[in-house]
UniProtKB/TrEMBL annotation, chain A:
This is Beta-hexosaminidase. It comes from Sphenostylis stenocarpa. One of its GO terms (cellular component) is membrane. The active site is at E335 (proton donor). Residues 172-525 form the Glycoside hydrolase family 20 catalytic domain. Residues 1-25 form the signal peptide.
Automatic annotation (TrEMBL), chain B:
It comes from the Eukaryota. Residues 199-554 form the Glycoside hydrolase family 20 catalytic domain. The lineage of its organism: Eukaryota, Viridiplantae, Streptophyta, Embryophyta, Tracheophyta. Its EC number is 3.2.1.52. It comes from Sphenostylis stenocarpa. Gene3D superfamilies: Chitobiase/beta-hexosaminidase domain 2-like (3.30.379.10), Glycosidases (3.20.20.80). InterPro entries: Beta_hexosaminidase_sua/sub (IPR025705), GH (IPR017853), Glyco_hydro_20_cat (IPR015883), Hex-like_dom2 (IPR029018), HEX_eukaryotic_N (IPR029019). Residues 61-179 form the Beta-hexosaminidase eukaryotic type N-terminal domain. This is Beta-hexosaminidase.
Amino acid sequence: MTKQEPTLLLLLFLLSCSCFPVNNAQSTTILNVWPKPRNLTWTLPYQVIIIASNFTISTTTSHHNKHLSAAITRYQNLVRSEHYHPLAPPGVNISTNLPPLESLTLIVQDPDVELVHAVDESYTLSILPSSATLTAKTTWGAMRGLETFSQLAWGLPTCIAVGVHVWDSPLYAHRGVMLDTSRNYYPVKDLLRTLEAMSMNKLNVFHWHVTDAQSFPLVLPSEPALAGKGAYGSDMVYTPEDVKTIVEFGLDHGVRVLPEIDVPGHTGSWALAYPDIVACANMFWWPATGDVLAVEPGTGHLNPLNPKTYQVLKNVILDMTTLFPEPFYHSGADEIIPGCWKTDPTIQEYLSNGGTLSHVLEKFINNTLPFILSLNRTVVYWEDVLLSPVVQVPSTILPKEHVILQTWNNGHNNTKKIVSLGYRTIVSSSDFYYLDCGHGDFVGNNSIYDQQNGDDKDNGGSWCGPFKTWQTVYNYDITYGLNEEEAKLVLGGEAALWSEQSDSTVLDARIWPRTSALAESLWSGNRDENGKKRYAGATDRLNEWRSRMVSRGIGAEPIQPLWCVRNPGMCNTVL
Amino acid sequence: MKSCVHKTFPAQATPRTNKMIMMQGEPALSLLLLQFFQLLLLFSCVALNSNAEASTSGINVWPKPRNLTWSPPFQTTLLSSSFTIITTNHHNKHLSAAICRYQSLIKSEHHHPLVPLGVNISKDLPPLQFLSIRVVDPHGGLVNGVDESYTLSILPSHATLTADTAWGAMRGLETFSQLAWGNPTRVPVGVYAWDSPLYVHRGLMVDTARNYYPVKDLLRTVEAMSMNKLNVLHLHLTDAESFPLVLPSDPTLAEKGAYAPHMVYSPEDVKTLVEFGLDHGVRVIPEIDTPGHTASWALAHPDIVTCANMFWWPAGSDWPDRLASQPGTGHLNPLNSKTYKVLKNVIHDITTLFPEPFFHSGADEIVPGCWKTDSTIQKHLSNGGTLNQVLEKYINSTLPFIVSLNRTVIYWEDVLLDDTVHVQSKFLPKEHVILQTWQNGHSHTKRIVSAGYRTIVSSAEFYYLDCGHGTYVGNNSAYDNQDGDTGNGGSWCAPFKTWQTIYNYDITYGLSEEESKLVLGGEVALWSEQADATVLDARVWPRASALAESLWSGNRDEKGVKRYADATDRLNEWRSRMVSRGIGAEPIQPLWCVKNPGMCNTQHPV
């Protein structure tokens, strides 16, 4: 055994760090950081060294930030143990005359700054022979730099390029994933794995669409009956301890956990605990005659004219702000369906006295928004609250300094509408960023799939079909058509996974690597130095990155045959 | 009588040895009990027949049996902790393996339905001690057209499964396993099932060349197929992108053509897979796609492959002059005699490795531009020859050899129907050749069977599982569109085939009764440009379950009405059971839908 070890080591050595010279493809392999940093240079003579097996990450700054400590420990272990093998062998010479890299020195200017919207995430990283230094203003920038460092390391023994200098900082402050845990439930471990994967991609917001018409999985201390009756099962809930775990895990990974309690629509599940505060609860969604009651199966809207609604809501909101320290709070307000409210006698009476449904919604907003603001929260609503052609409120009751509108309809047109009215926006255009689209319709007895001529050359019945490919996500310019001032109001974007046809069996593959495409597009953009869209170059890089994510335990789906990354350029087309 | 024999299963928990030993002492008693139960069965059949329309609600077998009744008073009984599956004497190791597997599954699964069963828990009934299996001919091989029928009756205190073959017995065991649920395990009593598939060929094709799948993933897929009573795993083993199969007579093909040394299937792997298939009643049909789709062969044998490793669609050339229909170029050269030396080794090895009497030889997508790059072929053409003749030479130099090895040959339909390059039907003897259809839906099925050929249906419009995820070429500007894509998303066979699309397709649509007889069945197909082990389960299941029911018992109810609406709730339950059995099948609806039956339907055309 002992006799063979040197031979084995030598062999691995040759496998991982042999050959010469470095060409462009090789440097792509070796320096494949996703999302691509804003500025990364590797200077001559293109040397690669070994990382010592007892490599450490040390910080010169004395700090008491447990999240930073957690990240340092995590990355130190990862760098020592990952031994990633690139799909395309890097084939570079190791510089045996240089000593192994013993440590990475971390300098954080202000390690106690909290993780909030627009926190400074910039960092500089330099890897020189025998020393490496990472400098950041905040803990969160340091985490981004640690991720970059980890992606620069590969092989067994672990190698890393030296003469590397990185300056990096995101283009957009808000880079997120939205996950719907109501239509189908996801165990906590799946959420934690998603946070890990987000951190690998330098994403910083996990927008948790916790509740909807279908189920209410969140156990709230003041209103335990909501989950007690509204969850799919007693094993399909998130307890306060689970939330704490998720929030802390998010902070350890530089990911904010932004909760959404979608009201007043999408609240069918509330009726199981409080039937009296929900209009049109548990009715057939689209009766054969009469008005539609919901946009999809699962009916119910909170009743803004019932005072009890606000008793329950205040408990819910107060609990939410206790459970989630995040200063943004998402209050939903999408898809008000007139037919639902119109089933309620109180609302009918209100309407017959000359009131409108927009007044009803206004009452709801006025009874909830000031309370949420009083708890020091910025409120995010879906754009519908202002832009719905049917039921909406005037902008006068939505203070621009406290309200952000998340857009999902009509692509850049609605983004333009929102920012030109002076609101900040988060882009989740369903034409580009909805990850669930393109898998058909889920209604149970839909006859459109019984066609013997297979003449559906269209989108296959998915309302937001076709499937959004990683390129579709990558290439979307979220400030398209905006002037410079308007563009400043675009905080960023979120890829969204609505869960009608998803649960933990498909979570990773639905999200990754398409959300990696979002991550790069919002971090360093989708264009090269010449301003040209860089999706072709991104293809090979994303193949490598997807492979690395898989080896890190994220079940990201493949984007090409392995043959393509082994034969660079051969899977392109000549246009 | 024969009881469970200890055996190790590659992907299944090993049965407890001590329980196995305990059962050894019981054969004499079992024989007596079996005879007694068979007597009882005669009486009970009469009673059950008078309850033909008895309720089957609350019990869920997928694919739905042709005939299953559960008679009032809809009782259930506990499964005895010493529950045993016993059978007549036989020497079929695959049957023994299946019995052990199901005995273990039935006792340990403890399935919890999504919607609790509203059934009587009958406290007065004794626990079920035995399932007695009678197999008329336990030694028949697993081949196309083998009898898979069975009858199953579960009466208070005993249950009987009767089948003509080991394979029918396996289908019946699966049904029995799906009837069991709960902790402690219960089964309904007063159940009678008669079952037999509508189509003999019910399969899944997996492409292991464009991306590689580890053996364990293929084994899990075989398990899942068996759960769905599917009986053919068609392995599209090799293609332009890689050659993962290690062949003893020509090891360089995989050595140079596989993606990596660890991304191969060794002869031992094949043996494991084939045996595992037989243990699960699943035939493994190998496909070595030739003469097109062979670029990977060129890494070992560059001289026998034309246009190898060239850019697939050169700049300035029109689509008809492309060298391949997708990246990865190369066709075997039919005019080079060395081609056949290599091929004979390959074919011979394949027939040694795979006992299955069907051999798939590919023959799809001959691209003229590729052959035209070769000087020998150019010369042939300039002397008045045609590419059809080139293909003809290829078929005539390989088909008789394959047939001489006692194989029925499957080709993709292109060999006869391709507009550009094809051969005449006289070179494709109908008794030895089956054509697999994939283009133009039922119109090609019709063309094939009206020409007198047997066919396997894999219509791209209905049965291709990879469609609807966009194109994968690296620099496609189609996805840089700031106004959004309202079309099909660029996938050539888009849209995504939903489970309903698969379920509702009638593979004999537009055929006469005689023509329909030539339709052996169908296969859903997973081409792997955008699939590998990370997505295998979710791409295949439960959509292949939809195929499984459609081809086993059909897609219509007793009244002849398409039953997709009712199938939705049943498929939700079945998908959940597959997930708990370790198959990562994707969800088809919010859980809310199955908990609120009918509420996720529509009363409008959507």
